[in-house]
């Protein structure tokens, strides 16, 4: 599905000293990838639509994980399941010959609670459905799976030595599935990782992200009749509210990069009963794991103080923790060059009508209808993203490059019903197939030119520093398989 004639595109910025891979070879490989993508597009979009309908939340992606595995098994991949004691996590491998680079691809699959939505241009929840793919992980999983299959065909056809690993990674949304997989050693032996994410524009900018840690703080008090015997009660809700009050005062005394959010997940059941139990769920973010650590310690100190001041007790369960993304210019320049071989996304007349009527364009007014056709100019500044992802932990252990494609109408924000709606239409499909082609072409270049892999690793080692020691922010806790129940 070649969408442009950029056959003369230079990839010198990515290849550096590896000059053997010329522009003609790049264009020929792009044409081959395009033909292969066309041949499996119906299979890939059908798989994406299945995941969209099922909309399974973190660690509950039973059907979604099985469907991804079935497609990979049929293509000749071997499958290892239950990675890191997570039933829906898996690694699919396809090897050709001995030696050669080991290329990893990530495949997310979890949906978000509370945003079930039909594939229509007005808000229309699906009755009886708890979740929706408001972050496009159905497209993420299916698109990466398709790319892995295309790469396996290329290895077989050319006889090039190498290995493709597709990582089925559950519970990105607050569950840190990849962190447990990293901790379990699932990424050992992988030379580079390529990943993508649904977006409202096409971009391979080498961006960082915020480190993130969360916990549920559970206060325990003493129940009593709130009117007849208030002196006998000790309100767990008072503990929660005291904690929230002090954390909100803390906001004045943290760096600009710090982000703190919370929701009260249990505040009692009846006003005339002093609550014996209450719970508040906190997220804390900052620019790096090192910057996050002292802020998190202060939040924990506040929890203890709130309990002491209200005559209650408190304990907390860390739910997830993610490192910031470590950008890799070598891989991102490669992905940028690969994407430009195919161009942006072209809407049909029906899709343009859908896009114009979708109530989402005002969310990000700097992105306008028509941006889906473009690719954002490459910017090496590594500006941080305000979000967080468990891909961060992967990137501190393996050289990792990523990009986004326009699977949503320009202007649409993630985690909205508008993102769910577009992701269930041809708009989502087209952006996903562009991601499939980009991943496959970049993977072929890495397999053809192992010097690129070496260059990416050299950059990775320099950025981490000689003294870096990885430690997961979530400690040694087991995966919270029931965190969405």
Description:
The longest helix is centred in the N-terminal third of the chain and has 32 residues. It is globular, with a radius of gyration of 24 Å. Strands 1-2-6-3-7-12 form a 6-stranded mixed sheet, sandwiched between helices. With 485 residues, the chain is an alpha/beta fold. The relative contact order is 0.19. Strand 1 and strand 2 form a beta hairpin. Helix 2 crosses helix 12, helix 3 runs parallel beside helix 4 and helix 12 crosses helix 13. The N terminus is likely disordered. It is built from 13 helices and 12 strands.
Task: Summarize it.
By secondary structure, the protein is α/β, with parallel strands linked by helices.
The count of DSSP E runs of length 2 or more, i.e. the number of strands, is 12
Average pLDDT level: 94
Number of helices: 13
Order of helices and strands: HHHEEEEEHEHEEHEEHEHHHEHHH
| Portion in strands | 15-25%
Strand sequence of the main sheet, in spatial order?
Answer: 1-2-6-3-7-12
| Sheet of most strands | 6 strands, mixed
Query: In percent, how helical is the residue content?
Result: 25-40%
Radius of gyration: 24 Å
Distance between the termini: 41 Å
Low-confidence region ranges? 2-20
> Shape, please?
globular
Which secondary-structure class do the elements indicate? alpha/beta
Keyword list:
485 residues; alpha/beta; six-stranded mixed beta sheet
Map the helices and strands.
Blueprint: H1 12-15, H2 23-54, H3 62-74, E1 78-81, E2 90-96, E3 102-108, E4 112-113, E5 131-132, H4 137-158, E6 162-169, H5 177-183, E7 192-199, E8 211-220, H6 236-250, E9 259-266, E10 277-286, H7 289-310, E11 313-322, H8 329-340, H9 349-357, H10 391-395, E12 400-406, H11 417-423, H12 426-448, H13 450-464
Parallel strand pairs: 3-6, 3-7, 7-12
Antiparallel strand pairs: 1-2, 2-6, 4-5, 8-10, 8-11, 9-10
Helix pairs in contact: 2-3, 2-4, 2-12, 3-4, 4-12, 6-7, 8-12, 12-13
């Amino acid at each position: 599905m070649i969408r442009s004639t950029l056959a003369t595109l230079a990839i010198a910025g990515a290849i550096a000293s590896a000059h053997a891979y010329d522009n003609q070879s790049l264009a020929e490989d792009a044409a081959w990838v395009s033909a292969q993508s066309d041949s499996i597009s119906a299979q890939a979009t059908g798989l994406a639509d299945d995941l969209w309908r099922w909309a399974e939340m973190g660690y509950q992606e039973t059907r979604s994980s099985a469907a991804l595995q079935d497609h990979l098994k049929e293509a000749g991949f071997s499958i290892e399941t239950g990675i890191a004691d997570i039933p829906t996590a898996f690694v699919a491998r396809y090897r050709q010959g001995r030696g050669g680079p080991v290329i990893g691809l990530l495949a997310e699959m979890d949906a978000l609670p509370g945003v079930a939505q039909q594939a229509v241009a007005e808000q229309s929840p699906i009755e009886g459905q708890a979740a929706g793919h408001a972050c496009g992980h159905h497209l993420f999983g299916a698109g990466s799976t398709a790319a892995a299959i295309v790469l396996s065909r290329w290895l077989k056809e050319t006889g090039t030595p190498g290995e493709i690993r597709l990582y089925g990674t559950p519970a990105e949304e607050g569950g840190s599935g990849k962190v447990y997989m990293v901790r379990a050693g699932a990424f050992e032996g992988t030379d580079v990782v390529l990943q993508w994410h649904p977006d409202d524009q096409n971009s391979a900018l080498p961006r960082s992200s915020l480190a993130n840690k969360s916990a549920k703080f559970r206060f325990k008090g003493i129940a009593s009749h709130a009117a007849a015997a208030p002196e006998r009660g000790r309100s767990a809700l008072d503990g929660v509210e005291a904690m929230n009050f002090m954390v909100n005062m803390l906001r004045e005394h943290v760096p600009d990069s710090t982000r703190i959010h919370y929701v009260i997940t249990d505040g009692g059941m009846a006003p005339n009963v002093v609550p014996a139990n209450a719970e508040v769920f906190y997220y804390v973010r900052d620019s790096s794991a090192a910057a996050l650590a002292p802020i998190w310690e202060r939040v924990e100190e506040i929890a203890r103080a709130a309990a002491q001041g209200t005559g209650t007790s408190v304990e907390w369960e860390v739910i997830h923790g993610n490192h910031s993304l470590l950008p890799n210019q070598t891989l991102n320049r490669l992905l940028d060059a690969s994407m430009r071989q195919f161009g942006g996304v072209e809407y049909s007349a029906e899709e343009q009508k859908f896009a114009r009527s979708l109530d989402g364009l005002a969310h990000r007014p700097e992105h306008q209808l028509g941006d889906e056709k473009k690719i954002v100019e490459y910017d090496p500044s590594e500006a941080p993203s305000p979000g967080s992802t468990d891909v961060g932990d992967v990137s501190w252990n393996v050289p990792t490059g990523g990009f986004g494609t326009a699977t949503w109408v320009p202007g649409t924000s993630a985690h909205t019903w508008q993102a769910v709606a577009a992701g269930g239409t041809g708009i989502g499909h087209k952006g996903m197939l562009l991601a499939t082609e980009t991943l496959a072409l970049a993977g072929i270049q890495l397999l053809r030119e192992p010097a690129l892999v070496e260059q990416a690793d050299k950059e990775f080692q320099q950025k981490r520093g000689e003294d870096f020691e990885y430690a997961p922010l979530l400690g040694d806790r087991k995966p919270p398989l029931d965190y969405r129940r």
